[in-house]
Amino acid sequence: MQQTDLPVLIATKYFPLPWRFTATAVTEALTASLRRLQVNQVMLYQVHWPFDWLLGQTTLLNTLAAAVKEGTIAAVGVSNYSAVQMQQAHELLAAQGIPLAANQVCYSLLTRQIEHNGILQMARDLDVTILAYSPLAQGLLSGKYTGDRTHLQGARRIDPRFSGSGIAKISPLLTLMQELAAKYTKTPAQVALNWLIAQGNVLPIPGAKNAKQARENAGALGWCLNPDEIAQLDQVSDSLSNF
């Protein structure tokens, strides 16, 4: 396999915990992250949660905008912001001449609420990228779970979605994904990720515990589901969203 040198882009987050309620605290947290990462700049620095107690959004975002101007952050993002909160963050940053780059929210074929609560449309209107976390619905969309909980670990052991009845409920979607995967010589997980990419301003961020999983995730790139297939996945998954 040919090796290519690709740039590594580092993103990290700031959680505005109760004792981090000043601009200085934000700057100190960023400086500590840079030191631990051993870099002079992170490409994306995100607010982990729309926390607005003691440390207001104006102070927080103005401080991050200043960090962009200083060069320690290349871009500012947020996480779990509603449509209204995202618009407010966009306006505060725009006043400093800084764009809002991203909003990280839960989004997958089984979690499509952002299509109905205004977040996805607001992101498109503001040219904000949606970073889709849990894009495989904790592995449900990988096709590897059968409903047998014998070998499950952690929260999956008690999550009803991983039970026999839970898997049966989403079986129409899994079957369609398997058919599309076979057509393109891909995996169901790659189909699920490609569907997200097809939404336009969406970048899925699947987890990877090892190199094999990272390679599988990368296999979602370089090809495209056609519009009819996207519509099929839309239709079958719509009634299953957040089941």
List keywords for this structure.
single chain; elongated; 243 residues; 6-stranded parallel beta sheet; alpha/beta
Question: What is the element layout, followed by pairings?
Answer:
Layout: E1 11-14, H1 23-37, E2 44-47, H2 57-70, E3 76-79, H3 83-94, E4 100-106, H4 119-126, E5 129-133, H5 164-169, H6 171-184, H7 188-197, E6 202-204, H8 211-218, H9 227-238
Parallel strand pairs: 1-2, 2-3, 3-4, 4-5, 5-6
Helix pairs in contact: 3-4, 6-7, 6-9
Annotation field: number of helices: 9
Proportion of residues in extended strands: 5-15%
For the sheet with most strands, the description reads: 6 strands, parallel
Proportion of residues in helical segments: 40-55%
Descriptive report:
The protein is α/β, with parallel strands linked by helices. It contains nine helices and six strands, in the order E-H-E-H-E-H-E-H-E-H-H-H-E-H-H. A six-stranded parallel beta sheet has the order 1-2-3-4-5-6. Strand 1, helix 1 and strand 2 form a beta-alpha-beta unit. The radius of gyration is 20 Å and the shape is elongated. The termini are far apart.
Brief summary of the model shown:
With 243 residues, this protein is an alpha/beta fold. The protein is 41% helix and 11% strand.
